Amino acid sequence: MKTVAPGRCVLIVEDEMYLAMMLEDILGDAGYKVLKAARLPGALALAESEAIDGAILDINLAGTQVFPVADLLARRRIPYMFASAYGDAGLPDGYRQQPVLQKPYGQAQLQQALATLLGDPAG
To answer: What tens digit of pLDDT does each residue of 9-46 get?
Structure first.
């Protein structure tokens, strides 16, 4: 991923450690500041207190759904997308308007989805 976002901050909420580390590396190489959480309490704390430009949310965090984080981000008007192997079929009705990054996804898909989410013309 080319450097496109110096100083922009992305929250990654992902409970699969390998995937979270890969995302952190890809986004870090592109110039993003990355915040990570693997469980709901940590994700809620970051979503509430940090200056975040956007977020990528795994729907299922070790059996707990991420929707309280999505609601908090929405209240703060921070754009977010879900990452899920189920696509938008795994979303309850109130969240189906949100973008979904279908797992597994590649670096190009990630770059395009994040650029669209953040309104970055470089994507």
So the answer is: 999 999 999 999 999 999 999 899 999 999 999 999 99
The CATH number given to 9-118 is 3.40.50.2300
- Tell which residue, 52, 59, 96, has the closest CA to residue 75: 52
Domain boundaries in the chain?
Answer: 9-118
Residue 102 corresponds to which amino acid? Q
Q: Are 100 and 91 in contact (CB under 8 A)?
A: yes
How does pLDDT run across 68-87, given as a tens digit for each residue? 999 999 999 999 999 988 77
pTM for this prediction: 0.91
DSSP structure string for 93-113: GGGTTS-EEESS--HHHHHHH
